Amino acid sequence: MVTFRHLREADPAVYEDIAAGWARPASALEATSDDIKREVAGLGGWWGDAADVARDHLSDVRREYRTTVEYAERVSAVLRTLADSVSDAQQRIGRVMEIVDSTYLLSVDPDTGTVRANAGGPGDTRTDEEKAENRRLAEELGEEIQAAVDDATEADQAASRQLNDLMPADAGLELQATGADRVVRPSDFPDAGDSAAEVKEWWDELSPLERESAIYTHPDRVGSLDGIPVEARDRANRILFEESYADVKARYEALDELGEERTSEQQREFDQLAGTRQGLEAINDQLGREPSEAYPQAYPLDFDTEGHGRGILATGNPDTAENTVTQVPGTESGLHSMASELEKADQLIAEAGFESGGDAAVVTWIGYDAPQDLGPATNAHYAEDAAADLRSFQDGLRATHEGGGGHNTVLGHSYGSTVIGHAAGTDDDGEPNLDVDNMVFVGSPGVGVGHASELGIDTENVYATTAENDVIRGTPRFVHDKQPISADFGAHEFPSDPGPDGDWYTLGYSGDAHSAYWHDDSDSLENIVTIAVGGTPDRTDTILAPGADSGDVADSPGV
């Protein structure tokens, strides 16, 4: 039985969240049911006993999926109705409490909800009629509270009866499609410290039905776990994305309707949601785009709408691509910058796909909390915090590649190059921390080390370019160490177009030149593609051995 205290302390949002938790797998199962229907239709040319058995089995599975969808949707509806009933009862009690709080003549027992009229005492000038009126009001308000509590109790009992009638056995479902021993539970997932290779080994040991269970019941775990194949992460993240995108749009529209009535806190939320919404729209457009020869299918590999947001999206399948580039953007990146970053990925995939016969993938990796201004970008801690996640992601690409590893390149733009530098190096056994074939630093302020030999891979595979007019050239050496295009850094410098000129007071440097590396027909784009597909780019470098004196090199920045 619901009490007054229970009702006042209840949180209807909890029921809403649980209802959403039931609605999400229902939607996913419905989509899978439709997939099964299409697959069965595609068996039209298969005949015989085996074909009949397969069709019957798939039809049975589809029927049970549809039944499960129906019951899950009914559970969700029951919980939403309960949430509405509790919320309505709380509002009624709230109105009573407003009346009580407006006068010292009434009080409410916090446990029972009984409303009492104060008896008064010496100095009480009320007439008997006024006292009687206060007692009448107290009785009336008490009845209103009791009616609200009774209605909440009735709603709770009704929800309990309805949920009891929605048990799997009542639907004729006894986990027959998967089996009770084939359900993947949270405790079954690999430990947080397990490597991507260990995660892949765990995944391979699951049966197909166990994998389906993991995807549909724990999409948040599957979608973000390095070492799980791209197609499985894609399916899990699409389940999560649909709900998250809808929630962000709904919240943004609600705040938008408030207009000038928004509080300062709501205004800050509104401004941030505007960027988050734009980023999710860009991802949604990419996911809905019809794959073509130039622009292959997109695969969401992780995303998060908290703060400035994160997002990892592959254009092309890294598990099957011969050549994969992971692009790490820099300062001011987040979900709000996703549209522009995906445009860069499109520029690169179109060229790389052409050069490699369509066998390429480009990953947009906004997988860290980037500095949002130039001041914070002088600090290394953003890169240090991102290093482990970038390493894990690259390990995952190796572990899940169907051809044994592929040819992998990491490309860091601006502060993104600093992230790569801090993720690189070697472990205690002398093995590379960042398992990649090439590192490419574009418009880099410095990568946190003084020489390419400290990055853990062969210096022959470390490349750098900075446009002649790129404002990043003005970054002092003490910020993130030498810039990779310094002659004494040891990377191979390749040419870029100069980029737009700056003003006289910026010494000709410009911010526009800092973001021009992906322009059509630019030297930088052509050379980046060449590196990505395993070729040798044009070179403009004069490489000195570690510790050698660069002398008075006029073009050596950061000096």
Tell me the overall shape: globular
Spans where pLDDT lies below 50 across 5 or more residues: 175-179, 543-559
Structural class: alpha/beta
CATH superfamily of the largest domain: Alpha/Beta hydrolase fold, catalytic domain
C-alpha-based Rg, rounded = 31 Å
Series of H and E elements: HHHEEHHHHHHEEEHEHEHEEHEHH
Please give the alpha-carbon distance between the first and last residues.
76 Å
What would CATH call the architecture of the largest domain?
3-Layer(aba) Sandwich
Query: How are the strands of the biggest sheet laid out side by side?
Result: 3-4-6-5-7-8-9-10
Portion in strands: 5-15%
Q: CATH class of the largest domain, please?
A: Alpha Beta
Average pLDDT over all residues: 86
* Helical stretch tally: 15
Q: Biggest β-sheet, characterized?
A: 8 strands, mixed
Number of domains: 2
